[in-house]
Amino acid sequence: MKNIYIKNGLLIDPVNKINRIGNVYISDGKIASITNEPAGFKADEIIEAENKVVSPGFIDLSTRLREPGQSRKATFRSESAAALSAGITTMCLQPDTNPVIDTSAVAELIKDLAKKADYPKIYPIAALTQKLEGTELSSMLSLKQAGCVAVGNANKPVRNLLILRRALEYAASHDLLVMFRPNDYWLGNNGCVHEGFFATRYGLPSIPEAAETIALAQCLELVELTGCRVHFGQLSCKRSVIKIHQAKKYGLQVSADVAVHQLHLTEDDIIPFDSNYHVIPPLRTDTDLKYLRQGLASGTINSLCSDHQPHDIDAKLGAFPETESGISALETLLPLMLKLVEDGVVSLEQGIAALTSNPARVLRIDSGALTVGFSADVCVFDPDLEWQINADTWKSQGNNTPFWGQTLKGKVIYAIQSGRLAYTNT
Amino acid sequence: MNNIQLNTEGKLKHFLSIDGLPKSLLTELLDVAESFVGVNDLQIKKVPLLRGKTIVNLFFENSTRTRTTFELAAKRLSADVLSMSIATSSTSKGESLLDTIRNLEAMFVDMFVVRHGISGAAHFIAQQTSPHISVINAGDGQHAHPTQAMLDMFTIRQIKKDFSSLKVAIIGDILHSRVARSQIQALNTLGVAEVRVIAPKTLLPAHVESMGVRVFHNLNAGLKDIDVIIMLRLQKERMTSALLPSESEYFKCFGLTQDKLKIAKPDAIVMHPGPINRGVEIESKVADGPQSVILKQVSNGIAVRMAVMAMAMQKQGNVG
Question: What is the pTM assigned to this prediction?
């Protein structure tokens, strides 16, 4: 394996409290040193990182690569390339594949697909309940042994609270993290946009905040009852932030993330009937956006995810409520994080922590830092480089993004995964 | 977004929603409709305006009144018209909305009149069709029913002459009503003094006041000083989905009876987009009474739809 020498970059590593110009030495797939050249080190590859930021590779807590089952939308190969070009070196995979990740066979299949795509760091999230139906528990221990990093029910609600209680208890017995997106089935009422001005004006079925906050509050009660470790994913509204803040203050072992587009778009930005804005949880209000941003700044929300959901053209071609929800979002993760820095929401260091060390802590994996001895997952990016989202620059197979055609700032120049130079921006 | 409805010169190309259309255009539409009223009284009820044009009525949802008046309107403009009910045909065979449209397009159609159960369907079709085709929305989901709203405006203007002093109350299921949304937008664009909505909270959308209406949950309070009463149809499934307890309780609270009608101004008119549920939202004595203009609305529907079709085709610069 090649020795890589990253020279004169602005190193930012929140865990090791590094924020200065320096070098990174990689050998044997691991971080060998970040200050002095290790004895006998001979660089096979020198990366000039002047005026670039060098950070740990990004860890994305919620993605969908559409395999198995929906390769017409995307494949491991297409999305791995997109992820690496966006500096994402580790991805958690939601279990709503077809078949669902509810047996160790499917988990093994995913590991195979990852290997073939040359993208080793895919962590499947196993289904919390069989087929995500919310009625019977999945074989969580077998799934954990097959490499699943957590369990969750993706966007499918567990309607019966007794089942949810037992699922949390069982997960806790095996020290499994539960990744939970709060979503009350009945209150959600098959809506497609936020219950607010936009829905009222355009007569669209809508989802109130309460669909999220009630499910969140119920789950928090069950966290206290069961002692299960729960991470709340893709929060979308003010009262969720307040509830997580209170729960943490009270001492519950919980954490939370937000999909980065929720920090930039509200219902006011939706171009009427443009299905690229059809996303669940829906884009909400200015107030919600403000609270989510504050939540990130204060650490109540510790991670940013892409909630990547690539789609084929047909999935988004139809009357708005009939189209499939979700945004193709790997490649906008870094630029949208940097925009938060530009908007003064978080420091660059905080923003990087939300993409690296914080999600690593949620998953309890030795990653997300430039610690000597850690697997060398490193991202070198130019925070000021502007690029336009178009067919030439975009790598994901799904073009479904509301940011299509826009010019964003921040581009990855090199991505190193497990010590391998996996992406070079040319 | 709504300028998808207008061509570069600001003329009507599609008619999808009242939202975003200027007052001048709505007034022009009413004036053009006025000029067509006489056609209904001619011995040969036809003008040659759209001769040689092909209009397809695409009804993905059932309708009698709207479909018939669109068909008559097209025929009186001398267009060739084809009416299709596809509620159960193609879509049940798995054909997508877009494929249905593409197939019909291949048959050299000039205009689609579309009714569909999903909000935004007409916008979607307008975006996807070839540039020379006009799309008229005959009702999409809970979003808009602009020709219904304009025939209501036409009827109001016919009787009340001027919009600026009018207080209008819309009563019933606002939440699920595309008619109500279009009416509210039309009334506010045309500049009425006040629009009220009267309904229980279960039948009102969130932040409905943002559409420029005053909200009442009590019929007696809401009807005071009202010039125009618009009743909405109450769908039976509102009971099974726990939005209302029973028809009889609804009638007791929000049904328009002769007694309640007396609370409004003595010359108030009563409107209903139809079909009416006698004894549910409206008493027969009121529906058939002297203040009711319900059948006038239906007749006006033809002239207004002729006007919409003629104006939308005019943008092509090759009308008759």
Answer: 0.94
Q: Which residues of B touch A204 (CB under 8 A)?
A: 119-120, 141-143
* Lowest-confidence segment of A1-5, A66-70, B101-105 by average pLDDT: B101-105
pLDDT of residue B143: 97
Residues A181-204: tens digit of each pLDDT: 999 999 999 999 999 999 999 999
| Residues within 8 A of A (CB atoms), B 166-205 only | 178, 181, 205
Q: What is the 3-state secondary structure (H, E, C) of chain B?
A: CHHHHECCCCCECCECCCCCCCHHHHHHHHHHHHHHHHHHHCCCCCCCCCCCCEEEEEECCCCCHHHHHHHHHHHHCCCEEEEEECCCCCHHHCCCHHHHHHHHHCCCCCEEEEEECCCCHHHHHHHHCCCCCEEEEEEECCCECHHHHHHHHHHHHHHHCCCCCCEEEEECCCCCCHHHHHHHHHHHHHCCCEEEEECCHHHCCCCHHHHCCEEECCHHHHHCCCCEEEECCCCCHHHHCCCCCCHHHHHHHHCECHHHHCCCCCCCEEECCCCCCECCCECHHHHCCCCECHHHHHHHHHHHHHHHHHHHHHCCCCCC
**B209–A contact, CB cutoff 8 A:** no
**Domains, chain A:** 57-363 (3.20.20.140)
Query: In the predicted model, is pLDDT for residue B88 greater than 70?
Result: no
Q: Say yes or no for a CB contact (<8 Å) between A319 and B124.
A: yes
Say yes or no for a CB contact (<8 Å) between B119 and A321. yes
Domains of chain B: 2-144+299-314 (3.40.50.1370), 146-297 (3.40.50.1370)
Nearest CB neighbour to A320, from listed B97, B120, B210: B120
Dump pLDDT digits (tens) for A243-300: 999 999 999 999 999 999 999 999 999 999 999 999 999 999 999 999 999 999 999 9
Q: What is the ipTM of this complex?
A: 0.91
Active site residue B116: no
- Residue B205 Cα, gap to closest chain A Cα (Å): 6
| pLDDT tens digits along B223-236 | 999 999 999 999 87
Q: What are A's interface residues with B at a Cβ cutoff of 8 A? A: 195-197, 199-206, 208, 271-274, 314, 317-322
- How near does any CA of chain A get to the CA of B268, in Å? 28
